[in-house]
Design goal:
Layout lengths: L1 E5 L3 H13 L3 E5 L2 H10 L4 E5 L7 H10 L6 E5 L4 H9 L4 E4 L4 H17 L4 E4 L2 E4 L4 E4 L2 E3 L3 H12 L4 E3 H8 L9 H14 L8 E4 L3 E4 L4
The chain binds calcium ion (CA).
């Protein structure tokens, strides 16, 4: 487990590192907000202990930045303030828990453990159609337990088809889902990508899952 401590009080930061290392975690320290934000966004941490008041960039701004980038790393916010409004503000910006300074190390360990445990329990769905499995969390696709490599766009189309299992997905739906609104290219691109997707998914002898609904779109369904 890799933890990041973003805390500008050097003594506290060092104490946290020492204590958490003794608990078996690998711990990095950032002493200001900018450095902390950069490290949090570039290194694969399991949890961030984030001070609220920091030079250069405060804890709330860091949290906002992480969440905006889609990073759902658990954040334990440290705050010297104990007013309820501050707690609420912390939660609204995506912190998962908070601790008011001063706190005991034992209390900190308990919170850290709880957050890591909670994170492990969050299972993103694995979509299944026949013997096709789409792991949305790991971005992996398996047909009859064999891994299939897809491009991001192919994956995105397959995800949409699987979420609408047994229903028709139109070319427009696919265009809207896979490309941003500025895309003005040829809608044939959908047919091209569904074609390459089909070659990878519907391997010979495995049965056809991607069906063309003529004049409308496509459907992902397992034949009974
Ligand atoms: Ca501080």
């Amino acid at each position: 487990m890799r933890l990041l401590v973003v805390e500008d009080e050097r003594d506290l930061a060092e104490n946290l590192k020492k204590g958490l290392t003794e608990q078996g975690y690998a711990v990095d320290i950032a002493l200001d907000g900018e450095e902390g934000c950069f490290m949090a966004e570039t290194e694969p941490y399991d949890l961030i202990i984030l001070d609220l008041m920091l030079p250069k960039m405060d804890g709330i701004a860091i949290c906002n930045s992480l969440r905006k980038k889609g990073l759902n790393i658990p954040v334990l916010m440290l705050t010297a303030k104990s007013r309820i409004e501050d707690k609420v503000e912390g939660f609204n910006t995506g912190a998962d828990d908070y601790l008011t300074k001063p706190f005991s190390m034992t209390e900190l360990y308990v919170r850290v453990k709880a957050l890591l445990k909670r994170r492990d329990k969050i299972e993103l769905p694995v979509l299944e159609v026949g013997n096709l499995k789409i792991d949305l969390f790991k971005h992996k696709v398996y047909r009859a337990n064999e891994a299939i490599e897809l491009t991001p766009k192919e994956f995105s189309i397959l995800e949409l088809l699987a979420k609408n299992k047994n229903g028709v997905v139109t070319r427009t739906m696919i265009l809207d889902h896979v490309w941003d609104t500025s895309y003005t290219g040829d809608s044939n691109i959908v047919d091209v990508l569904v074609g390459t997707l089909r070659k990878k998914i519907d391997l010979p002898g495995k049965g056809k899952l991607i069906q063309t609904v003529y004049g409308v779109g496509f459907k992902l369904a397992a034949k009974e």
